[in-house]
Known about the structure:
By secondary structure, the protein is of the alpha/beta class. Helix content is 41%, strand content 23%. The strands form three sheets. Strands 3, 4, 5, 6, 9, 10 and 11 form a seven-stranded mixed beta sheet that branches. The protein has a two-stranded antiparallel ribbon with strand order 1-2. The longest helix is centred in the N-terminal third of the chain and has 23 residues, at 63-85.
Amino acid sequence: MNPAFDIDALRAVVAGIELRSFARAAVELGRSQSAISMQLKKLEQQAGTQLFVRKGRGLVPTEAGEALAAYARRIVALNDEAARALGAAVTSETVRLGLPQDFFDDVMPATLSAFAHDHPQVHVEVRAGPNHTLGEEIQAGRLDGAIVFFPEVAGGEGERLCKLPMQWLMHKAFGDQTAHDRVPLVMFDHPCLFRQATLATLDRVDRRWRVAVTTPSLPGIWGALRSKLGIAVRTGHGVPDDIVCADDELDLPRLPAIELRLLRSQNATPAANDLCEALRRETIGLVAPS
C-alpha cells in the first residue's frame, strides 16, 4: 500500500528547509516544536528511510529528504491552488527570487511589478547573494528563479540572457595612484567571479596588485571606491554616477566579458514559472546591451 503523506507534514518540511530551522517553521505554522517533530517522524516511517539528520542544534535533510522536499513543494502548491480554485481560504503561495545586488535598483522592482499585475495574491520572497550561493539555492529548490553571473566560457547551465563586459571602476576623484605601485583592489569576499577575473587578468600581464578592501556587499564596494581606497571590477550596469570607468585612464589590462544566465527550479509551480518569465523579460529589457 502506498503511503498517504500528510499535507500539513509536507508543509512543515517545506517551511523547515526554506527557513533553515524547524523551530522557526513551528512558529510560522503556529505549531509546537514537538508537533513538528512528530510529523517528521511519521513521514520517515511512511517513507521507510531517514529524511533528516541532526547537525549542531538543528536538523538538515538527507538526500532522500531533499528529494521529498522537492515533491512536497509541488504537492503543497497544487493543494493550495486547488483550494483557491474552489474558493477555500488558504495561505497565499510564496515564490522565491534570487539575484545579485547589481540588479536591485531596476530589474528587481520591474520584475515584482510585472509579476504582481497577474498574481496580486502571491507572496514574493527576494534574496540577494553571490553566484555560488544562488546556484546552490536553485539546485536545492529553495529558490524558484535567479539571474546569476557565469564566466563567458562556462557552458550551458541555465539560459543565457546576455553578455556584459567587465570594467575597471574607480571614483572620479581617485587619480592615478597605480603608476608606480601595486594596483589597490576593492573586491568581494572569496569566492567571487569578478575577484577571480581581476586577479587572473593582472597576473597574466605580470601587473603587481594588493587587496585594499574586501567586502561582502555591493554598497561596500561603492563606499570603498568613494573613499578612494582602490579600484574595483564589475559590469557597467547600475554603476553610481560618481563612479567611472578606469580602463583607459590607468592603462589597465583588458578584462574578459561575463555572462548573465537565468536559472530555474526543476520543480517550479505555475506561479513560479510566471515569475521566471517576468525575470527573464525584465532582465533582457533592462540589462542586455542594445
